[in-house]
Amino acid sequence: MSDLDSVRERVLRLAFRTARSLPGAAGGMGVYFSAQQRLAEDPRYAGWRRDVATMLRRADRRFLRGHVASALRWYDKALRISYDPSLHQTGGSPLAQDPDSFLRPLRQSALGTVLLDGTVPEGTAPPRPAPRRRGEDEPLRLVVVAQENWTFMRPLLAALRATGRYEVQEIEVDDLPDGGFPDRERIIRGRYDLLTTGRRMPTPPALVEAFEWADVVLVEWSHHVLTWMTLLDRAPRRLMARIHRFEAFTPFVLLHDHRRIDRMLYVSPPVWAMLTTIAPGYSDVPSSQVGNLLARGVEQLPREAHDPHLLVQIGWIREVKDVLFSLDVLTRLRQHDERYRLQLVGPALQGDEARDTPYQRRVRAALGRFPDGVVEQLGVRDDVPSLLAQSGAILSSSRHEGTHESLMEALVVGCPAVIRDWPDTVAYGGPATLYCPDWVVADADAAAQRILELADPQRYREESADAREFALAHRDPAVVVAGYEHVLQDPTA
What we know:
There is one protein chain. The protein has 21 helices and twelve strands. By secondary structure, the protein is α/β, with parallel strands linked by helices. Strand 8, helix 16 and strand 9 form a beta-alpha-beta unit. It comes from Brachybacterium alimentarium.
């Protein structure tokens, strides 16, 4: 950061905090921007609940005076603070830990009782195209709708096309003509209008055409795009959506018209369990667990040679990955044998220590307590399968995960896993709902003990074989594609 940028940031910080005390809307905006800035600096900022309450009071005052548009804007600011990524993507999410307490202020406000707990009026279901009779060998017509992030979906669509049983169209909502895909403000207003008047949002012509053509429409990422799709005045023959961990920590899971969704596809049982707690409407939607295609490692056979004293963690810089847990495990291991070391793969700490968050300062200090070479920061690598194949074990130290895809990449090349019982998911089943429970450990002591047991060559060979067998049983491309075909082809699946 340049000196000028640093000065500009300090000026803005001072301006926001000064503006908090101003009367009227200016003070409200000061509270809002100051809350965002403080959370960015320190996710443990304790004043965020007070700031949310300020936004809700302003929203309710405007709402009770009949100023709906401005009330919705203030309510959305309360949502934005409540769901700031700093609160939920660093570990210790207040939403995951206590959903009722987290959501209570949002639900109990005058506007929240409408937006979050209102009932869609009867008789407002949008029309669907008439059923389409398919020939026995005729491909299923699939339309996939997403915004920007197609990372997980594109390999799957390629595999589905390769079967010859699907015609696929992709709709990127950002490419719809002007006004086709609304902004967040219009989507939230659309939710309000549906609940209070029964009026639905207009369907863009490109989607009308897609709905008429498709047998199934699948929405990838169940956030604002899915909310919008369920608010439209037209509907496809069958609407499905796929949900990941990310969407669970956005307010949009509370804003869908769940009755418009024919099936939810989820990749993570703990996330799904949390969602049905947060948004009970999901409990009424048929659901199926599906997987992601493994991007790397399936064709790479496990190596006979590996270093049982070499541990690896993929992704570690974000607080939710909790590398401090891994470093704690490493400390315990080195008390038994100083040959143990750890490789960290992924983006590293920034060069300017003055810019460190409180968590990053703790990480930097913990790293400094190890001798040179014991902890290697490898940065972003394109040879991850090879690194995993030569490692003794992969560590998953996270506080919260959906599936932790790098674990499967390790398992498929025969690298055993040591999986912390992700603290934020314990109440929802944790990683044992996804992986072998024997691989899941309660704390750093148990993690170190499991790694020490893997030092036995016979035990390691058995666990390495079990790891690959498990990965292929769950993520072999044929297995994953068959799972999707089951739900796409069978309306009752």
